[in-house]
């Protein structure tokens, strides 16, 4: 077990009707003037936004709105939000939505606390981030885990780049999670979410030589829970108990708990972000499309084969055969599971039917920052190896 720091400061407010506590929560964390950030309209249509704003008004809080956040959220809208937040002298940013709204809220918070800096310079760490505004979240989709994570991801449309920033300032003060709110989700988004939740733990699991029994057991239990309940919520998004399990797994999968003692890899996410930047595909789908190829490229490396075999055994109950056999079966079962959710498991199925060689090279260069960084802690992946996996 390696050295680690575990810091998960977000207050979780979980359960039915908890969105009505949004005003009290904002007040508790010192907010008086609130910018409410939401997406393309689902929160408005369901009446959620009205309920959240009523709870802000009930506590005597002033608020304004920033709507229109798109999936794969754009820098330009976040910049608009910064302007608005500065003008209204917001002291709290409240996201109502999924990863895209929460990440935009985080970006607005960083920008509004540092209005003299360009937001993309903060994002790309050209200027250090030393202060931000407090952010809270009312979660409507179990997926990205942004409600408890230290990260946020934006797309800079002008340069076609999707990039994330990790900082303690990205931690939400509170996360309100009512599984009922996810009942209106389209099936495709549920499947993307289930995939992303699994990937956040799997990208922390396939780490060479790691011996962390407790962390492994948490990770494997989380994956089994998602595999059991994912199909249930896909079948019936109003299944409260199943959605509650998925929502809780979504937060635990990305709040740092499943990396204690070994850290993380997140190379598949780099492949996915390059795909989303170029083709604007949903995040979870981009990961499902790549993971199988990534795993087949990596699993038989000496230091990690046993982990793939353990994964097959603990997560999928595959106990027969050599490490090699169990490992490959585990990979196949995982890919088949993504498929059963309706997720793409190749670029072809991701609706990128005929990427040219040049396209694949460009993706590989983007994912590896122009071949200046090596991805993965297993086999080191430069632009050439990444290209082979995309192929
Ligand atoms: O915009 P609206 O109208 O709300 O519709 C959204 C959107 O179309 C819809 N939706 C959300 N809740 C709904 C709903 N529709 C009906 N009923 C509801 N209750 O779902 C669509 C997707 O929403 P989005 O917020 O984009 O989903 P998700 O939570 O998957 O977020 C994806 C973004 O988060 C980033 C991804 O890269 C992507 O940009 N990630 C953020 C992370 C983080 N901050 O820690 C980690 C992740 O690895 C990920 O990279
Ligand atoms: Zn993700």
From TrEMBL:
It comes from the Bacteria. Residues 9-179 form the Alcohol dehydrogenase iron-type/glycerol dehydrogenase GldA domain. The keyword Transport does not apply. GO terms for cellular component: cytosol. Keywords: Oxidoreductase. Residues 193-391 form the Fe-containing alcohol dehydrogenase-like C-terminal domain. Signal peptide: none annotated. Transmembrane segments: none annotated. SUPFAM superfamilies: Dehydroquinate synthase-like (SSF56796). InterPro entries: ADH_Fe/GldA, ADH_Fe_C, BDH-like. GO terms for molecular function: alcohol dehydrogenase (NADP+) activity; butanol dehydrogenase (NAD+) activity; metal ion binding; methylglyoxal reductase (NADPH) (acetol producing) activity. PANTHER family: ALCOHOL DEHYDROGENASE YQHD. This is Iron-containing alcohol dehydrogenase. It comes from Fusicatenibacter saccharivorans. The lineage of its organism: Bacteria, Bacillati, Bacillota, Clostridia, Lachnospirales.
